[in-house]
Every structure is written in structure tokens, then in C-alpha cells.
TrEMBL record:
<comment type="similarity">
    <text>Belongs to the HIBADH-related family.</text>
</comment>
<dbReference type="InterPro" id="IPR002204">
    <property type="entry name" value="3-OH-isobutyrate_DH-rel_CS"/>
</dbReference>
<feature type="domain" description="6-phosphogluconate dehydrogenase NADP-binding">
    <location>
        <begin position="3"/>
        <end position="162"/>
    </location>
</feature>
<keyword id="KW-0520">NAD</keyword>
<dbReference type="Pfam" id="PF14833">
    <property type="entry name" value="NAD_binding_11"/>
</dbReference>
<dbReference type="InterPro" id="IPR029154">
    <property type="entry name" value="HIBADH-like_NADP-bd"/>
</dbReference>
<dbReference type="InterPro" id="IPR006115">
    <property type="entry name" value="6PGDH_NADP-bd"/>
</dbReference>
<protein>
    <submittedName>
        <fullName>NAD binding domain of 6-phosphogluconate dehydrogenase/NAD-binding of NADP-dependent 3-hydroxyisobutyrate dehydrogenase, putative</fullName>
    </submittedName>
</protein>
<dbReference type="InterPro" id="IPR036291">
    <property type="entry name" value="NAD(P)-bd_dom_sf"/>
</dbReference>
<dbReference type="GO" id="GO:0016491">
    <property type="term" value="F:oxidoreductase activity"/>
</dbReference>
<dbReference type="InterPro" id="IPR015815">
    <property type="entry name" value="HIBADH-related"/>
</dbReference>
<dbReference type="GO" id="GO:0051287">
    <property type="term" value="F:NAD binding"/>
</dbReference>
<dbReference type="Pfam" id="PF03446">
    <property type="entry name" value="NAD_binding_2"/>
</dbReference>
<feature type="active site">
    <location>
        <position position="171"/>
    </location>
</feature>
<dbReference type="GO" id="GO:0050661">
    <property type="term" value="F:NADP binding"/>
</dbReference>
<dbReference type="InterPro" id="IPR008927">
    <property type="entry name" value="6-PGluconate_DH-like_C_sf"/>
</dbReference>
<dbReference type="InterPro" id="IPR013328">
    <property type="entry name" value="6PGD_dom2"/>
</dbReference>
Amino acid sequence: MSVGYVGLGLMGKSMALNVLKAGFSVNVWNRTASKCGEVVSAGAKQYDTPAELAKHSRYVFTNLSDSADVLEVIFGKDGIAEGIQEGSIVVDNSTIKPSTAQEIAKRLWESKKVHVLDAPVSGGDIGARNGTLTIMVGGEESALTEVLPVLQAMGKSITHIGPSGAGQVCKAANQIMVAAQMVALGEILVFNEKCGVDSEKVIQAIKGGAAQCWTLDVKPERLFAGNRTPGFKSALQSKDLSIVMDSAKEFGVAMPTTAVNAQLFQSMVQHGEGELDNSAVVGVLERLNNIAIKEPKKQ
Ligand code: NAP
């Protein structure tokens, strides 16, 4: 069965490579065509448009930045909807609004008899490279059963959450926690600095206790090495928190902590720091406190 992969950014490229490694025949398309190079060298076939790719793929995966981008690549000119065959399955690995995921699923089913799964992921660029992502799925369970072998090439934990949009609600929940952890880590590092205590020792000590989490395992080491590159771009973190706050408004949920965290990431975007890693939110706290955290280690 041929698998189409549309969107070879930080996440999509590694995920497509893992699908290839698992033995599937892979078709690719990326807006910036040159970014297909590595995956094509590994054996994938590159197409000129999403429509052409969809015509030749039983399963079509998308991994794009935001809701509008997914709508454009599916329903726009030369989009997936123009080429896709009845009975194919579209799987969207992007993080987008739950309501947009529902709209896409409804439109493609009604117009093409194509099932759409929302299947956003968590685990960062490292999880994408290692094929250890957590995948949260919304949509028809029978479609999930069919594409499961492909998803298993990308991730280790694959959960069917519920109908269309439910995977994106789950991802939004995930992002509430991730943002809170990044901001808390930033506050810890600035707090230690102001108190004159060695942050590396603090992190070493607390990551074995009740504060243990993925963020403490992965991000301090990068920050101590002076590395604030993504990982996960702050502009995308900001986008995800907008999805959360939009949904909170829609359903009438009060989420004061997430509202503040959304503002901190928005501040990064306004300072031209959207391309930095989400752990670089420590920079906002450095500005607020007029202090810089520990100098990078000499490499
Ligand atoms: P990225 O590196 O910025 O890649 C974005 C991809 O989307 C690129 O292939 C880009 O094409 C394409 N794209 C964006 N807008 C487009 C449009 N209008 N038309 C066609 N292609 C378009 O982002 P990423 O980190 O891979 O993230 C992708 C998705 O995964 C996002 O929804 C993000 O929230 C989610 N996610 C990311 C992570 C992470 O750790 N990075 C973790 C979990 C989930 P070009 O190459 O032409 O720009």
C-alpha cells in the first residue's frame, strides 16, 4: 500500500523516513520542494502537487503548521481533494483546531467518501526521529484499524480518543501541560539564578522527585548548552495555545494559568522569537527579571 506524506518540516520529514524504513512505499510533497531531498534519497517518490500525490496514494498523511494551511492543502487548487480516490484515508498529523478537524472530515466524507482521522502527535522532534511518538486519534475506528501499521512506524502509544476532533482536543490538553512545564522550567531557572543556587544541581535533584517530567529530562541540558533552537517552535506553541483558548471560549471554560502562558508565548512571537524552541520562553522571564540564566557551558 502506498503512503503519501505531505509536509516535510521538522516533524514530517522524520515521520516519513520512519514509514519508509518500515517497508512502505512512500510518496511525498512539500511546498518548498527542495526539502524533499533527504526522503527522496532514502527511496520516496516526489510529486509536483498534493492532488497528484493523492491520486497515487491509498493513505494520505498531512503534517502542516496550522488549521488554514491544512484546509488550503486539502481543498485549495491542486489540493488533496482534487486527486484523492474513494475509499482512501486521510490522516492529519498536524495540530489544528478541533472544529476544523471536524469540518475537514465532514467535507471529505460527503464529497469523496474518504475517511479522515485527526491524529496529532506528541514527543517532539526526538520522538519523531526515534519513532516513539504519542499519537492521539479522532475519527472512525475502522479507518484507524486500517492505517494502524503505518502509525506504528511513527509512534509507540496510539490511542483512539473518540469521533472526529477528539484527537485534537486531546492534543490541546497535552499542550496545556507542555506550556505550563516550559514556563515553570523558565521560572525555576530564573529563580535559582536570583537565589544564587546552581541550576544544574537543582534540576538533577528534582527530576527524580515529584517534579519529574519530560521537560525536565530533555530541555535543561539544551538550555545549559546555550541551545534555544527547535525542537518545537515557540510560534507553534503560541498557535497551539490559541487553539486551546479559542476552544475554551467556545465551551465556556475558565483556564487562568493557560491564559497567562498564552500571553508569554505571544510575547515571544512579538519579540521576533517565534522560531526559537518553546523552552526559550525562559527569555521572557529573563527580560521580566532583568537577569540572564547561567552562561552556556564551554563546548
Ligand atoms: P515546521 O518545521 O515549521 O514545518 C511545517 C511544515 O508545514 C513545512 O513542511 C511547511 O512547508 C508546511 N506548510 C506550512 N504552511 C503551509 C501551506 N500553507 N501550504 C503548504 N505547506 C505548508 O513545523 P513542525 O515542527 O514540523 O510542526 C508541524 C505540525 O506538527 C504543527 O502543527 C505542530 O504544531 C505539530 N507538532 C510539532 C512538534 C514539534 O516538536 N516540532 C511536536 C508535536 C506536534 P515549507 O517547508 O514549504 O515551509
